[in-house]
Amino acid sequence: MPRRYFKRNRRPPFKFQVPEWLRTARDVVSQFTIPLIVFQIIRTILFPSGIDFMIILILVILHFCFSYEVL
Question: Where are the transmembrane segments (predicted)?
Fold first, then answer.
C-alpha cells in the first residue's frame, strides 16, 4: 500500500469556523447597511460636510465587505 505524502486538509472553510454569535451579528449589521447608506446620502444632500462623505465611504466599504463575505 503506498504512503500518502500529501494529506488532505480536512478542516471546513473559514466561514464555518466563525462562532455562531459572530455570524448572527454580521448578518444583522449587513441588513442595516443599505438603509443607513440611503439615510446618509439624503443627509449629505441636505447638509453637506466632510464628515458625511467619510461616513458614506465607510458604510459603502462595509456593505461591499458583507456582500462579498470578506468580513
Answer: 45-66
